[in-house]
Design goal:
This protein is mostly helical. It contains 5 helices and no strands.
Length: 167
């Protein structure tokens, strides 16, 4: 009879040593990010500023990630639901505010540099400029997403399991 090896170690890794927890969180966060990104872009298209659009979209996305992550990723629950929600709300108030500011700042920087870049490349087609300008908000959000996702992963581990997880 063959000895069975556990698929997942107690430390969140597979028997092979790969960090399953982070991979699952990345997948779950990807879904939350799609929710966030869709709302963000819809609000930007409706004329809402980058800071407010990100704050609203991110709140929707992280709410989804918290509820599903607590159930499917961070199973060693050491924090009661009320305390976890409060801690996660405080964390996200700070994190979303910081990320919204960063996205707005990066968007403004890209928008300010765009005319200079177009002139340097001798591109004067106003349609191209309009398309590139429309991409400023999504590019700023996409550029900062990895930082946000990883910080949220570490925060979830601390809030739900009271452990620091890096992978």
């Amino acid at each position: 009879m063959t000895e069975r090896t556990p698929l997942h170690g107690h430390d969140g890794t597979e028997a092979s040593g790969r960090p399953v927890r982070l991979h699952r969180f990345a997948l779950l966060s990807g879904i939350g990010w799609l929710i966030d990104f869709a709302i963000f872009n819809l609000l930007v298209a409706l004329g809402v500023g980058l800071f407010a659009a990100n704050a609203i979209g991110a709140t929707c996305g992280v709410s989804f990630v918290f509820v599903t992550g607590r159930r499917y990723i961070f199973r060693d629950v050491r924090t009661g639901m009320a305390a976890a929600i409060l801690a996660y709300a405080v964390w996200n108030l700070l994190a979303i505010t910081a990320m919204s500011w960063a996205i707005a700042w990066l968007g403004e920087l890209i928008a300010a540099l765009l005319p200079t870049l177009l002139r340097a490349l001798a591109l004067s087609d106003p349609r191209l400029a309009a398309v590139l300008h429309a991409l400023v908000a999504p590019v700023a959000k996409i550029a900062l997403t990895p930082v946000s996702m990883y910080a949220n992963f570490v925060a979830m581990g601390l809030i739900v399991e009271r452990r620091l997880h890096f992978v």
